[in-house]
Amino acid sequence: MDIGSNIRAIRKRKSITIAQICEETGLSQGFLSQVETNKTSPSIATLESIAQALKVPLAYLLLKKEERMGIVRKEERKITTSGVENLKVEHLSSTRNVRMMIVEMPPGSSTGEVPHAHEGQEVHVVIKGKIYAEQGEDSAVFVEGDSFSWNACTPHLVKNIGDELAIVLISVYTETDNRNRS
């Protein structure tokens, strides 16, 4: 864990000097310098006082780099295709267990000829168009603004039944790590 680097980065971003932190916490400059260079591990109580001086939650100091906010700019989105109809998939962002994407479905296209299943739970929001969704014995038609969710381990399919491009925002939760998935 790289707590010291987190503390130093926050302190510098907020233009706070080591002396100011020491004045507020009662810690020595030498000790705080050793904390920032990861040469010593402070107690939880000490970390709490440093967090208060930096005006951040203690938990924020403990986050690993990959647990911090991830940013994907629109022009940096990974774009792939899915299924036999090569549906356009824009990957928005992901965490260890959740990934979000926008799927573009031309009129008449679907996620496949037959329902499919996979690990996870999905939430869909229709951004544009008219789609038909089916899971087992359940089915419904959805239009812009409608949403639905399901456990993806039950076979399901989605089809654009409208006359225009359908755009669907999908969020997928899985128990396994999603960070390296497409």
Write the layout of secondary structure elements.
Layout: H1 3-13, H2 18-25, H3 29-36, H4 44-54, H5 58-62, E1 78-82, E2 87-94, E3 98-105, E4 121-128, E5 130-135, E6 138-143, E7 147-151, E8 156-160, E9 166-173
Antiparallel strand pairs: 1-2, 2-3, 3-9, 4-7, 4-9, 5-6, 5-8
Question: Which spans have pLDDT < 50 for at least 5 consecutive residues?
Answer: none
In round numbers, the mean pLDDT is 92
* SSE string, helices as H and strands as E: HHHHHEEEEEEEEE
- Note the overall shape: elongated
Classification by helices and strands: alpha+beta
Total strands: the figure is 9
Helix fraction bin: 10-25%
* Sheet having the most strands: 6 strands, antiparallel
* Count of helix runs: 5
Task: Give the neighbour order of strands across the main sheet.
Answer: 1-2-3-9-4-7
Strand content: 25-35%
Question: Rg, please?
Answer: 24 Å
Distance between the termini: 28 Å
Walk me through the structure.
The protein has 182 residues and is α+β, with helices and mostly antiparallel strands. The protein is elongated. The two termini are 28 Å apart. The model has no long low-confidence stretch (mean pLDDT 92). A hairpin with a 2-residue loop joins strand 5 and strand 6. Helix 2 (18-25) crosses helix 4 (44-54). The strands form 2 sheets. Strands 1-2-3-9-4-7 form a 6-stranded antiparallel β-sheet, with no helix packed on it. The chain is built from 5 helices and 9 strands; from the N terminus they run H-H-H-H-H-E-E-E-E-E-E-E-E-E. 24% of the residues lie in helices and 32% in strands.
